[in-house]
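Slide 14.
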Amino acid sequence: MGYSDHDRARRVAEPPKSEMRTDFERDRARVVHSSALRRLGAKTQVLGPASDDFVRTRLTHTLEVAQVGRELGKALGCDPDVVDTACLAHDLGHPPFGHNGERSLAEIAREIGGFEGNAQTLRLLTRLEPKVTDEHGRSVGLNLTRASLDAATKYPWPAADAPESSPRKFGVYPDDLEMFGWLREGAPAGARCLEAEVMDLADDIAYSVHDVEDAIVSGRLSLAVLDHADARDAVIAQVHAWYGTHVSADELSAAMHRLPTVETWVRDVDGSRSGLAALKDMTSQLIGRFADAAITATRAVHGDGELTRYAARLVVPHETLAEILALKGLAATYVMAPREAEPLFRRQRELVAELVDVLGERAPVALEPPFAADWRAASDDAARLRVVVDQVASLTDVSAAEWHARLLSPRWAAR
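Slide 15: predicted structure.
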């Protein structure tokens, strides 16, 4: 058990440090100090960062995932810094405008290997984020250890090998397969390490609970809707449309009857400090409920002691999965699905596509220096398009809008 020299290896060997930090503590520090993490503060989580002062951004969501994941991993015997690093890194590859922007880039990049936020995360960690170069002067990104990179890989397969359960999800582009092969040495094909499973569950827990909290505070949702059968049916339909049918309608219905029995459950929030405190207590209790269920179930199968890497699998009770999905369904039904028809969201997808077009036409001059260098080094049109997609994906919601206004303004176009 534990972690071997193989797990602590870096793609480019580095001299030992005199400071009293472990290899995995250094990994976490590199992600914390990365420009990609800072940019998450101006990227959409569910609601846009400018919508109000309360709403979560990708950065605040990421910090919450890291807190949940670190405690969950620690309870199972994982190295807390490996899990923390994976959680901090898990959304780094997401483009401006959240999944809305991801959808636009996926369509644009369809013929060059596609676009997926998780695959973009791996590309960023191992290529785009500047920290370490190899003997040929090529960037190897943050040069994290094998264990941390593997833990950050939520979908350990290329698009061509995606399983039926996740047909649109993948973790590596074709031109990053060499690095992917290195970090996956010794790993069972298609299997995630325990730390990646912990990261994924922490993401689902934070996502489900906090998106509902945001929806309640913004006035888009009252949990009193669960008193009504037609509302529960609508949530079930939305879960099956967005997340698949691996959890049945009966199981989701049972989950929506169980959740209101939680001692701290609040049906309505009046906006007062006491009301908001009650809501916060409910979110804390739900997080503990889900995490404790997974810890208990995993220990029941694997026993005590340190559980790491491929020595164990995370066990999440089916009832817990159903409750998490029910909460995700509430957010989807009352926040995410209604916004799909809003003109703003259509315009965001158009903005991303127009940015790719204009940057492709004006590259390399219009690109930032690192991406301009990548564009000049690209061997063909497909590689050059990938560079432009990398550039656009790196932008925040705010900078994407500013770049669009500058590059497509009449004054610029007339030059």
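Speaker note: DSSP finds 19 helices and no strands in the chain.
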